[in-house]
Amino acid sequence: MSKPVVLRLGGVKYAQKAWEELGKIAQVVTVDPSTTRAQFLKQCQDPESPISKTQIITRNVQSLKQTGRFDAELAKALPASVVAVCHNGAGYDQIDPAPLIERKVQISNVPELVNNSTADTHVFLMLGALRNFEHGRRLMYEGQWPSHPTAAGAPVGHDPEGKVVGVLGLGGIGGAIVERLKPFGFKKFIYHNRNKLPSDLENGCEYVSFDELLSQSDVISINIPLNPKTRHIINKEAIEKMKDGVVIVNTARGAVIDEAALIEALKSGKVRSAGFDVYEHEPQVPQELLDLPNAIGVPHMGTHSVETIQKMEEFVVENVRNIINTGKVLTPIPELKGETWIEDAKPLV
């Protein structure tokens, strides 16, 4: 019996051993890094290409350069043999689920392994934004400290004590952030999800409406996925409902914030400071934002650690193994909930 064909899109940094082991039960094929989307779509339909026999696809964010978005056009071009797409990441906004689900293709992500690393990054940005650390760092690097002995002239910051943190999206990452923030002495934590969580999952947070979260929070912690409903959920109107001098931290997806509106709010002082790991049009970041001393940012480093990258890559391989052995992905995305056809999926061996 021939081995199941697994198409690996994107490179592997630390999980080479896991892929070597997978190679014992599957035929792993790849695409040349110079491949364009047009070439990839053609290879999917070329019977002479091993890609046309693909049953499982794994992908990472970097593979966007070879394939472009997993949209309706790409879903239509995929070989009929494809049964699953395994994405390496918690967020999967590079994938349009509907056309793949219509073709009865399962989609998986890596939802939990990113929690701790992303939460660590979030806390770093939040404390930095509260205390104006970025502003002070810039002034020091500019040589301002000798002439401004107190903190090089940076504005005085704020301690966490007595502040209300509004968590927009109390899922795995949001919960990990709350756990890390509790020892710092914040006054209380409120949250808003689409639906109120069971009390045992609220982690001591109080459920409020979206507008209440905006109006009551001293610090807003953003941890929601990007989709058509959440795009620009933090816009000019939302910012106007916030407290004067609010702090905003985003390690989710850049486009959940209207970046232009936030820049104006940072310049006016309506938003006192902000922390970013993600940006609306990354890797392009507006120079206007980069120039603001009350914005502390890193270039999408939330999961940029050896340990987390390795765990994520290895988990993608586990998803592939489970499909081969059972016909089902381990971590289906929420859009697959209620799709009864998955129950009929058969092992590939």
UniProtKB/TrEMBL annotation:
Which keywords appear in this protein's UniProt record, sorted alphabetically? Oxidoreductase
Question: What region holds the D-isomer specific 2-hydroxyacid dehydrogenase NAD-binding domain?
Answer: 124-302
Tagged with keyword Ion transport: no
Q: Where is the D-isomer specific 2-hydroxyacid dehydrogenase catalytic domain?
A: 65-331
Say if the entry is tagged with keyword Oxidoreductase.
Answer: yes
Q: Which domain of life is it from?
A: Eukaryota
PANTHER family, alphabetically?
2-HYDROXYACID DEHYDROGENASE-RELATED, GLYOXYLATE REDUCTASE 1
Q: Would you identify the family this protein belongs to, as annotated?
A: Belongs to the D-isomer specific 2-hydroxyacid dehydrogenase family.
Q: What is this protein called?
A: 2-hydroxyacid dehydrogenase YNL274C
